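in:
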């Protein structure tokens, strides 16, 4: 794999996004993540997974520069693959701990909300579903997963304003479970993952499905229409102008 690294230590696997400075999401990243998590599903030695990023970004979100060259049809296919992956992550049968090493923006935030537990490094890192700030919409599944984390009222505040939240603010909202000094992030993520790993796997999977199966069914029922609407808005002249102006700042 070129952009997703997999390491294993005893019964915990660590999946690391490593694509350039900002770990931007494109077709290849989604494909490699799918392959990686599929492998971990059947690995009987692995009882918990950590999802993190390399560098100062967990993930900037979509690779907007690359997608400016996509046809609408190709971009729609990407969205289908992207949403299919985050839904499978939301239902992944083993515990998944997000270790947010840096900025988790838009699609990166969606990956985080699909996990079971979120730790975030203190400091300059921000987390946001900020699509509204550049004229884009959201996907049905991303909204449902956000509501699981923060509730309906806070979800509305987050997506209507597109605010970039610090670790302190995100913890207060429930968008993350706990903030951690950057130098302790992976050690703490390992501690959380190992706590999860000690629990009965069959019971965990059953309880997780009881909590999430109906939500995932609702996500899948509404996702196709939301993808089509997302693409329509993304390809509108005003949104494309704003997407072209996006600048990445560390």
């Amino acid at each position: 794999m070129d952009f997703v690294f997999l390491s294993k230590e005893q019964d915990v696997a660590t999946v690391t996004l490593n694509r350039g400075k900002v770990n931007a999401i494109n077709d290849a990243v989604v494909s490699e993540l799918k392959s990686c998590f599929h492998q971990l599903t059947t690995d009987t030695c692995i009882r918990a997974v950590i999802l993190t990023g390399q560098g100062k970004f967990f993930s900037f979100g979509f690779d907007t520069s690359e997608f400016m060259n996509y046809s609408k049809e190709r971009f729609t296919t990407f969205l289908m693959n992207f949403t299919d992956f985050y839904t499978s992550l939301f239902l992944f049968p083993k515990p998944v701990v997000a270790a947010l090493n840096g900025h988790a923006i838009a699609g990166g935030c969606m990956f985080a909300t699909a996990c079971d537990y979120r730790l975030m490094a203190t400091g300059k890192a921000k987390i946001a579903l900020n699509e509204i700030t550049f004229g884009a919409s959201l996907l049905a599944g991303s909204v449902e997963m956000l509501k699981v984390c923060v509730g309906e009222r806070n979800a509305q505040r987050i997506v209507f304003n597109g605010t970039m939240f610090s670790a302190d603010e995100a913890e207060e909202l429930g968008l993350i479970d706990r903030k951690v000094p950057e130098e302790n992030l992976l050690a703490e993520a390992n501690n959380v993952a190992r706590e999860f790993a000690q629990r009965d796997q069959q019971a965990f999977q059953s309880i997780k499905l009881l909590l999430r199966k109906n939500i995932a069914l609702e996500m899948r029922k509404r996702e196709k229409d939301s993808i089509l609407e997302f693409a329509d808005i993304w390809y509108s002249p005003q949104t494309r102008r704003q997407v072209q102006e996006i600048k990445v700042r560390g």
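note: The beta strands are 4-9, 12-17, 48-53, 57-59, 96-100, 103-105, 117-121, 127-128, 178-180.
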